[in-house]
Recover the amino acids of this structure.
């Protein structure tokens, strides 16, 4: 098993590009992770990484070995999943990622309950509003809001979420409430955007009498954290485009107001995506079923004011 453990560390270092990150992901200290790599290099008689100040890059030998090593680990995972399916006792680790706001509100609070139900399954949750590369970073399941274009992934739609444009009364008193979508641009409203490397949605698409129409809105600043956007809107700094369930409590207590209700943003898809082979893994199916039911119920409760 020690040799397989060394291979597993090597694969995670290649995928994450950093020894410390790989160590944290596998719950190993940087020293232990480094020793695993050294043992593997000694066994193979070659150097597997070129070391720079910021990351480790695989050598030619390392690149070749990674391809085979990844196939070996995937085969073992599939074999373990098959045994778990037969025995009815799923076990192992699931790596999950979700956007910050959605992850905090819906996913994170459900992980302990899932573990209580399935104590032999460990879940490692990573929250980020960045576009995480699922294949490269070894993610098993990603919960996402928005456009999903990667054809190498399977998708399970969980629900379609209404979106709204909202702003604080303070902002609307100072700048005026837009009566039609064109005023967002014509009156130079401060439209606050979620932007990050790899983001695809830099316009607001609104539902108009002539069908969906894109508006190239602008604002004085943007962020890669959805909750920061909400905070800015609450402090009267501009207009934001959000899934209604994320801002419903603030709408209900009148800290935010829905604007342009007759031409709302197009709905956003809430979905789980995963590599093709992962649905064969019973523990992944269990997590998807558990979170699908839970998230649908929580969103309905939030919108109903419960």
């Amino acid at each position: 098993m020690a040799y397989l453990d060394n291979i597993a560390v090597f694969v995670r270092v290649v995928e994450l590009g950093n020894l410390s990150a790989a160590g944290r992901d596998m719950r190993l200290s940087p020293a232990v992770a480094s020793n695993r790599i050294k043992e593997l290099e000694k066994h193979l008689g070659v150097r597997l990484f070129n070391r720079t100040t910021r990351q480790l890059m695989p050598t030619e030998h390392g690149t070749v070995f990674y391809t085979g090593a990844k196939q070996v680990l995937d085969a073992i995972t599939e074999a373990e999943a098959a045994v778990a399916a037969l025995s009815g006792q799923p076990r192992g680790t699931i790596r999950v990622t979700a956007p910050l706001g959605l992850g905090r509100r819906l996913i994170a609070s459900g992980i302990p309950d899932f573990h209580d139900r399935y104590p032999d399954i460990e879940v490692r949750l990573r929250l980020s509003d960045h576009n995480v590369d699922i294949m490269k970073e070894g993610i098993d399941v990603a919960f996402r809001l928005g456009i999903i274009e990667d054809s190498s992934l399977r998708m399970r739609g969980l629900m379609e979420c209404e979106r709204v444009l909202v702003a604080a009364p303070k902002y609307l008193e100072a700048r005026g409430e837009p009566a039609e979508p064109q005023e967002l641009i014509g009156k130079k409203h401060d439209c606050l955007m979620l932007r990050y490397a790899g983001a695809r949605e830099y316009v607001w698409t609104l539902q108009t009498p002539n069908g969906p129409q894109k508006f190239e809105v602008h604002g004085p600043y943007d962020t890669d954290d959805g909750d920061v956007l909400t905070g800015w809107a609450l402090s009267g700094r501009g207009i934001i485009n959000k899934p209604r369930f994320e801002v419903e409590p603030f709408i209900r207590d009148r800290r935010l107001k829905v604007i342009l209700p007759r031409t709302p943003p197009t709905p956003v898809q809430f979905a789980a995506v995963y590599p093709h082979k992962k649905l064969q893994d019973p523990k992944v199916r269990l997590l998807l079923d558990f979170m699908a039911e839970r998230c649908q119920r929580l969103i309905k409760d939030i919108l109903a004011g419960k």
